[in-house]
Fold:
Amino acid sequence: MKKVAVIGSGTMGNGIAHIFAQHGFVVSLIDISEEALGKGLSAISRNLDRMVTKGTLSEMQKEETLKNITTLTSMEEGVREADLVVEAATENEALKLKIFSQLSDLAKPSAILASNTSSISITKIASVTNRPDKVIGMHFMNPVPVMKLVEIIRGYSTSDAVTTTIEDLSRLLGKVPTSCQDYPGFVANRILMPMINEAIYALYEGVAGVEEIDTIMKLGMAHPMGPLQLADFIGLDVCLSILRVLHDGFGNPKYAPCPLLVNMVQAGHKGAKSGQGFYAWGHGTKDLIVADRFKK
Ligand code: CAA
Structure:
């Protein structure tokens, strides 16, 4: 496997393109606009610079990594020769189904089609393609260059051979592949999202403030980020949509999203990417500043 196409140049897509290119793969990074591609490429370059500064990558390796990436706005051209396509578009079911039905015609018959979805059914995505045995979930964690896990999701029809290929490939990228079956939220988000939702409920019910909840979980459980900071980092809209997938998929009220989360998303307070969430973002300091709304 040499050629990889990555669809979507946002945070996850550019991270995925980065690690494949760093490990010598020829990468086509595809998005709908030159502007989005430009932003994606700048993020890759910045993250490579971090590694050069840390001494974990040489300047030459950085240049080679960048040379391995071609950006394109045409999906047809970008996926034609790919051995593997990794889709990392917006977390929207209708959009993903449209992309996979197009990939079914555009990618060569032997190509494996992977999705980085955090919660949408791989079996459903596979059902719109002509090769459900070659469709698989390859769920990277943010930030992709740092996080070791790749959650591998086997759809109902994913073959053993394809699963093994993707597990081996993830190891080649320096990651630890861990496989699971295709049920709502898979494993990572089935466990993470109820914790985040419970933290939001604790805030909503006035059990404690933002800082207290995050400090208790950071220092008490040795989590690198508290659940509210992590929710802001992931995106509150993404957390809400994953909770809805869990709620709908299991029909169990324990997954019902906290009304405060619903309100925040409706108000456009989506976390770090929107500048406001449980914290205020974009103030150019590493210190966490609680959003005005939640200040005591
Ligand atoms: N690219 C490359 N390197 C990066 C990076 C990036 N985008 N972001 C951070 N780093 C590196 C830094 O250079 C630094 O490297 P060294 O350890 O060699 O010094 C290291 O990562 C730590 O970074 P910082 O010192 O800047 O900051 P930090 O210590 O606060 O760590 C963090 C940042 C790695 C993000 C850490 O806070 C963390 O692990 N947070 C939790 C992340 C997490 O849980 N991710 C999963 C989210 S869920 C998900 O992705 C899936 C889903 O479906 C919702």
Residues 263 and 269 are 9 Å apart (CA to CA). The first strand starts at residue 3 and ends at 7. The chain has a mean pLDDT of 97.
